[in-house]
Amino acid sequence: MRRKEREMDREFGLRVIDKARYGILSMVGEDGEPYGVPLSIVRAGEVLYFHSAKEGRKVHILKENPGVSIAFVGETRIPENYTKEELDEMAKDDSKAKLLISNVFTTEFESAIVTGTVKLVKDEDEKIRAMRLICEKYTPTKMKYFPMAIKFGLGRANVYRIEIRSITAKRKKYDEYGEEMKWGRM
User: Fold this and answer.
1) Does the pLDDT of residue 105 top 70, yes or no?
2) CA angle 108, 109, 112 (to 5 degrees)
3) How many helices and strands (H and E) does the chain possess?
4) Do 73 and 18 contact (CB within 8 A), yes or no?
5) Domain boundaries of the chain, sorted by first residue
6) pLDDT per residue over 22-47, tens digit each?
7) Which phi and psi angles does 116 have, rounded to 5°?
8) Taking the domain 4-172, which CATH number applies?
9) pTM (predicted TM-score)
């Protein structure tokens, strides 16, 4: 990671994964072309789960090349570190250009990138557990209807697991004084 001062630990990365609304699964097709797709992904310990249709480009690629990377984005925000008056003063002084670029034209963010190998889940009990976790994350108020949905839908979907091989996590965040919170400042 180039910006080591923004690198966060594994636990931070796991929290980003858990709260992210989706992850972007990136893979490489047999033609060498990259392919990425947003997915509803859930984590259980050191394993990620997602589901898909039984056929399609993603399914075909994963059979041929199961090595993947998944990018997750947590919270993002445009910081307001300066008042309009402070910005007007800054704009009068060319020596403030770097400060303007790095602290005004910027975004606070948190992200995690996972690498791993995708495996099709064949065990029915694991498939149901994974689908339950996915539904609890994305449709928690509808769990009363989960038994019927799983009864009629499980056979129509693939469920995949990814054992987390590595996680890198990164964050850019400012404190209430407009100072960037480097590594170690939570």
Assistant:
1) yes
2) 160
3) 6, 8
4) no
5) 4-172
6) 999 999 998 899 999 999 999 999 99
7) 180, -175
8) 2.30.110.10
9) 0.86
